[in-house]
Design a protein that fits this description.
The protein is of the alpha+beta class. The protein has helices at residues 18-28, 35-44, 96-110, 124-127, 165-179, 193-197, 253-264, 283-286, 308-314, 363-369, 376-381, 392-400; strands at 8-11, 50-55, 58-72, 75-87, 116-120, 132-134, 137-144, 159-163, 212-217, 223-232, 241-250, 269-278, 293-299, 301-305, 321-328, 337-343, 348-352, 359-362, 386-387.
């Protein structure tokens, strides 16, 4: 790796430099500058958690982190949400990304901040070398409403209300916060994060309508599910309308079924698409099978274990476990070594040990398994986990696997 020239300096970003940083990131991601988008980003931006490489007085590379809580098996956990990772095309191949990633992770460790870091990878080939593992998947769902027939026993008493996003926020928050503590993959939405989630400029819509909000209420009038969606009128020898779902979250099966009945039975609509559903979405079972539903998977949230002992002690395990894990971590050497993990659904403890290893794995594989959506046995089949004691792999797989696949609907 080439040594960066002396005129390149790395430091946090001052508030006055935020517009220049915004333009750098927009350019790297092939976008134009938009004042409305920059205004929202400024509200969630944390200058003390920013990092940029400057060529003179111009930023040419960046990486920031947001302070949020991520739900992991066992409940919410502070996580460093890494974003705005960009290197100007004029400064590629100089080791700037490696330099920023190493600094960011070392700072998290040295200051005993978050034990895990998470990000969305714009290109999946980039982040594995920094110890991140793909820990969740997004399912792209396409439903033909002509072929969709909901089972008669699904749903129940309740109603759906249509609201403007600005008026729906109390109901959205109530449903989200009732689900978030137990739904692995969800992030808290303090401050301006709800405003960012509901941001809906016309340039994003590809001819579709403005953002709609449907809230399902149970028989007592309590909101128990919501859907954020757009509609698009299309005609070809008749109505061929489309619905694009941005997010759908339900606290009850009746609320989930009620919202899907509403979406699938909307007049003039022939297709419903949802790009970031959970990998184990229940919709096909509401329809009695997969005939009306097309599904495809892609990577969603990536996890980087910053401190193995703290991260494994912080989550819970589906079955009682007592295992020695041997972790290799070339990028964050403080993680390399053996750890005894003892835990169950009530709590866990992970400490360094010299005992013989039951399993050996790189830290990226541990990150992939951390949210419970990626099986350690699957990783072993790919040659990423090695069983040192017979039976240890099966036991560890059962302990780490969650009740549901992680659901990460929000790109940050």
């Amino acid at each position: 790796m080439a040594t960066p020239p002396q005129h390149l300096t790395m430091r946090p970003i001052a508030d006055a430099e935020l517009p220049a940083l915004t333009r750098l990131v927009e350019g790297v991601f092939l976008d134009d500058h938009h004042d409305d988008e920059a205004e929202i980003e400024a509200q969630i931006y944390e200058p003390e958690r920013s990092l940029a490489v400057f060529d003179g007085d111009q930023p040419v590379a960046s990486a920031v982190a947001y302070s949020r809580n991520l739900t992991v098996p066992g409940g919410p956990l502070p996580a460093a949400c890494v974003s705005w990772v960009a290197v100007a095309p004029t400064h590629r191949r100089r080791g700037l990304l490696t330099r920023m990633m190493r600094h960011q992770l070392t700072e998290l460790h040295d200051r005993s901040r978050e034990a895990v870091a998470v990000l969305w990878a714009s290109e999946s080939a980039i982040y594995g070398r920094f110890g991140y593992g793909p820990a969740s998947q997004a399912c792209r769902i396409t439903v033909s409403t002509r072929d969709a027939r909901m089972l008669p026993q699904t749903g129940g008493a309740g109603r759906v209300r249509l609201l403007l996003p600005v008026d729906a926020l109390p109901d959205l928050t109530a449903v989200y916060e009732s689900v978030r503590p137990d739904r692995v993959g969800l992030l808290d939405r303090r401050g301006a994060w709800w405003q960012r989630r509901l941001f809906d400029p016309e340039r994003w819509r590809d001819g579709a309508s403005s953002l709609r909000v449907a809230v399902h209420e149970d028989a007592s009038g309590r909101p128990d599910a919501f859907a954020l969606y757009n509609t698009k009128a299309t005609w070809d020898a008749g109505p061929q309308g489309e619905i694009g779902v941005r997010e759908l979250l339900a606290a009850t099966p009746a609320g989930y079924a009620g919202l899907w009945r509403f979406l699938l039975q909307m007049d003039l609509v022939r297709t419903v698409r949802w790009d970031r559903a959970a990998a184990d979405e229940a919709l096909p079972h509401l329809l009695g099978g997969t005939g009306a539903v097309q599904q495809s998977l892609s990577d969603a949230l990536w996890v980087r274990i910053v401190d193995v002992d703290r991260a494994l002690s912080a989550r819970r395990y589906s079955t009682p476990t007592d295992l020695v894990l041997e972790i290799s971590d070339d990028y964050c050497p403080w993680n390399s070594g053996r750890y005894r993990l003892a835990g169950d659904l009530q709590g866990a403890d992970c400490t360094s040990t010299m005992d013989r290893a039951d399993l050996s794995l790189p830290v990226a594989a541990l990150g992939a398994a951390y949210l419970g959506g990626m099986s350690l046995s699957t990783l072993a089949a790919a040659g990423l986990v090695t069983e040192r004691r017979p039976g240890a792999l099966q036991a560890a797989t059962a302990a780490f696997t969650g009740a549901r696949a992680p659901y990460a609907p929000e790109v940050f």
